[in-house]
From TrEMBL:
Record domain GST N-terminal: where: 1-87
Family, per entry: Belongs to the GST superfamily.
Domain of life from the UniProt record: Bacteria
Ranges for domain GST C-terminal: 90-211
Protein name: Thiol:disulfide oxidoreductase
Stored InterPro entries: Glutathione-S-Trfase_C-like, Glutathione-S-Trfase_C_sf, Glutathione_S-Trfase, Glutathione_S-Trfase_N, GST_C, Thioredoxin-like_sf
Length: 212
């Protein structure tokens, strides 16, 4: 059994997508970040950076438990290695999956997050910041589009790299991105959206946070 400390953000969706794809047994522990629950001492003991998601695995593969893991990329790597799923066995594809996972963690998440903040939530409009992060968002979608022009998925086969990137592309309209301008991203996006596990993961988000 895995306890998933979760809220309905792109980083949170990564883990529900993985868990629904693999069928692992898990329980949602909602952490309402709007209400400040991420600062509770019990949660900080699991996630010292006071960010969701985090997990506690009560049956780790290496026989000692429970084990807690924070940071969404680390959780995806941990669960992929635990299950032997969604991380390619072929060394070249495995390396590609790792590269694109790190690409998402270092750029496609943080830069798009800044886009969201300055264009929608900042208390005052800062034109320089809005323009800066919009241009970087467009650049990153271009990087993704070029990769997907040559590969069905980021590591050829569907993997944790795709699971990491997809939730950040879901709010593309709020990022002022038209996927028609990135046709290979559009094809990839539609393929992942059509997966049954994706539908289940996002239906779960509606139950946890109907007001999202």
């Amino acid at each position: 059994m895995i306890d998933l400390y979760y809220w309905t953000t792109p980083n949170g969706h990564k883990i529900t997508l993985f868990l629904e794809e693999t069928g692992l047994d898990y329980t949602i522990k909602p952490i309402n970040i709007g209400a400040g629950e991420q600062f509770a001492p019990d949660f900080l003991a699991i996630a010292p950076n006071n960010r969701i998601p985090a997990i506690v695995d009560h049956a780790p593969a290496f026989g000692r438990g429970p084990v807690s893991v924070f940071e969404s990329g680390a959780i995806l790597m941990y669960l992929a290695e635990k299950t032997g799923q969604l991380l390619p066995a072929d060394p070249h594809r495995r390396l590609a999956a790792t590269e694109w996972l790190f690409w998402q963690m270092g750029g496609f998440g943080p830069m798009l997050g800044q886009n969201h903040h300055f264009s929608q939530f900042a208390p005052e409009k800062v034109p320089y910041a809005i323009e800066r992060y919009q241009k970087e968002t467009e650049r990153l979608y271009g990087v993704l589009n070029r990769r997907l022009a040559l590969h069905e998925f980021l590591a050829d086969e569907f993997s944790i790299a795709d699971i990491a990137c997809y939730p950040w592309a879901v709010p593309h309209q709020k990022q002022h991105i038209d996927l028609a301008d990135y046709p290979h991203v559009q094809r990839w996006f539609d393929a992942i959206a059509a997966r049954p596990a994706t539908a289940r993961a996002y239906a779960l988000a509606e139950k946890v946070n109907p007001a999202r």
